[in-house]
Amino acid sequence: MNLCVGCFTMSNVAYNENSIPRVVLDEPEAAFALGLSPRTLRNWRYEAKGRGPKYAKLGGRIVYPISELEKYVAEHVVE
Question: What are phi and psi of 6, to 5 degrees?
Fold first, then answer.
């Protein structure tokens, strides 16, 4: 599953067109990849703790590890 906008993945590492490895997406990229609005992700973080995908804070920024986004999607597959 490729959750990086404008990237391709190998394992859980995404590479952009310059072959720079990426392992996280920022909030707008993660929201776009999941088909959600950034506001929804924000609400899940602050109001419905534990509802959305796991995230990290790096240098004061909220980022979403690609591996956690993929895990979140896999956990919500309806059979």
Answer: 75, 20
